[in-house]
Amino acid sequence: MKKVSIIGSGTMGNGIAHCFAQKGFNVSIFDISKENLIKAESNISKNLDRMIKKEKISELEKKNILSRISFLNELEKNIEDSDLVVEAATERKDVKFNIFQKLDKLCKPETILATNTSSISITEIGSKTQREEKVIGMHFMNPVPIMKLVEVIKGKKTSDETFETIMDLSKLLDKKPVFVNDAPGFVANRILMPMINEAILTLEQNVSGVEEIDTVMILGMSHPMGPLFLADFIGLDVCLSILNVMHEGFQDDKYAACNLLKQMVNNNELGVKTGKGFYIYSEGLKNKKVSPNFLK
Ligand SMILES: NC(=O)c1ccc[n+]([C@@H]2O[C@H](COP(=O)([O-])OP(=O)(O)OC[C@H]3O[C@@H](n4cnc5c(N)ncnc54)[C@H](O)[C@@H]3O)[C@@H](O)[C@H]2O)c1
Q1: Ligand 1 first shell, C-beta below 6 A
Q2: Predicted confidence band of residue 75 (pLDDT cuts 50, 70, 90)
């Protein structure tokens, strides 16, 4: 495998591109938003600078990694000869189904089509193509260059060959791949999202404040970050979409998103990516402050 294409240059797409390019792959990253492509290039550059500071890579390596990534706006161009495509676009069924229909038409028959979806059925995404045996879930964690886990999800028709290729490739990226069956939210989000939703409900019902809820989970449960900060980090729109997919998929109200989460998404308070969620990020991640909305 030489050429990898990534669809979507948001939180996850730029991290995935970074990891592949660091391992020597030629990477094309596609997005419908030119603004997000510019942000992605700057994010990758900043993340590589952090690695230089920690003496993990040299200035020359940074230059080489960046030179292996192309930032592109039109899917029709440069995609057909990809050996692997990893889709990391917005977590909406209509968006992903549409992208997979297009990819199936544009890519050579051997291309493996992977999706970084957090919750949507791999079998359903695969059914939008004529190559169901080559469609697979490759679910990276955020931030991708740091987090070791990749959930590898087999759809009903994913072949063993495709599965083994993606398991091996994940190891080559220095990740730990874990096999997971196809079910809404897979394993990671099926466990994580109800916890995040409950933390938001605890805030909504005024049981405690933002920092207090996060502190309880950090100090009381040894979580590395509190659930409200984690929700901001993931993106509140992404959390809402995942809960909606699980609510619909399991037909169980225990996955119903709470009102406060829906309101914040409506107000475009999406967390780190819009600068405001449960916290505000005008002075960077480290100097985050509780959003004025939640100050007593
Ligand atoms: N945020 C997380 O912590 C996280 C973790 C694991 C997996 N995921 C999954 O990764 C995927 C991407 O999430 P994200 O957080 O990076 O979202 P994001 O909102 O940060 O970025 C999504 C990007 O996709 C682009 N996009 C939308 N439609 C497109 C299209 N048709 N073609 C090309 N680009 C398109 C948008 O312009 C945007 O730049 C989702 O499926 C999400 O569930 C997210």
Answers
A1: 7-13, 30-33, 36, 88-91, 95, 99, 116-118, 139, 141-142, 234-235, 238, 273
A2: confident
